[in-house]
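so my prof wants the structure for this chain in the tokens format not the other one, which i didnt know existed until like an hour ago. anyway here's the sequence
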Amino acid sequence: MSDVNVDDALRRLTLEVGEFRRLVSDRLGTDRTREKAFDALYEELKQYKEDFLFKAERPLLLDLLLFYDSLLWFQESMVKQEMSTDVLADSFQYLIDELLEVLYRRDVLPVEAPGKLDLRIHKVVRVEDTDAADNDQLIAQIAKRGFQRGETLLRPEEVIVYRARRGRSGP
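here's what i got, hopefully its the right format
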């Protein structure tokens, strides 16, 4: 191979290496730009999500703060012993009603359960034997109220149910 061909080959190789360096540099610059754009977009989406959640939660939080104020009033009244037993019971019922109102505003309602065991909405926490066959699987007592939102059960109602003893007739 002649010196001219080698020089031409080296010149072409130098140009191609220079072009390759430029392409790699451009690519790295593009990747860094893209990475910065994605980081900025991620931060913007994160802020949007936080703002959206706060706006969605704000009415509930304000209701809970009002309920907190009522609890403080109730506590102060108890400490000062300003209430008779009847007034105390009425005031406590007011707090329960106020909390239920907060739940109602969020479309959360107590389960309207039938008097008979329904395992779709009930959770049996205890069974009481009964001699009356007619009472079998009837609700003896509600231990803890169940709640639903629309058609979705949030918490099953915890109940105590009657179970008829087998082999014995009713009274």
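also thought this was worth mentioning. The two ends are 120 Å apart (CA to CA).
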